[in-house]
Design goal:
This protein is mainly beta. Helices cover 7% and strands 25% of the residues.
Length: 110
C-alpha cells in the first residue's frame, strides 16, 4: 500500500485588502479587571482533639505550628498512652479552626 501525501497547507492570504485580526493582550477581552478583589491571606490555628476509648473529647494545645501531626501525637503520648496506637484524622477547617482528631484504636471492655 502506498501512503497518500497530505495536501499542502494553505497560508493566510496576506494581500493589502485582507489583514490579520487584531489580537488583544488580554486572554478575555470582555473581562473587566476592576471587578476582581484582592486575595486575602489568613492564619488558621490548628485544634487537636483526642477521642479516647470512652468517647471523651480532650482538646490538646498546638505546641508548635511547624510540627507535623504525628510529631504532636508523639509529644502528647507521654501524657496519654493511648495515643501511641491512635489514628490521625484530618477533619479540615471547622468554625475557623483546622481540626485534627486523634482517635484511639483500643476500646474498653465491659
Amino acid at each position: 500500500m502506498r501512503r497518500r501525501s497530505k495536501p499542502p497547507r494553505k497560508s493566510w492570504p496576506l494581500t493589502p485588502r485582507t489583514k490579520m485580526p487584531k489580537r488583544s493582550w488580554s486572554r478575555c477581552p470582555n473581562m473587566n479587571h476592576q471587578t476582581f478583589s484582592k486575595m486575602q491571606i489568613a492564619n488558621i490555628t490548628r485544634k487537636y482533639l483526642f477521642l479516647n476509648g470512652n468517647r471523651e473529647k480532650i482538646e490538646l494545645e498546638d505546641i508548635d505550628p511547624e510540627m507535623g501531626h504525628e510529631r504532636i501525637m508523639e509529644h502528647y503520648s507521654a501524657l496519654y498512652p493511648e495515643l501511641t496506637n491512635a489514628n490521625v484524622m484530618d477533619k479540615g477547617i471547622i468554625d475557623g479552626f483546622h481540626e485534627v482528631h486523634f482517635q484511639s484504636l483500643a476500646g474498653t471492655k465491659g
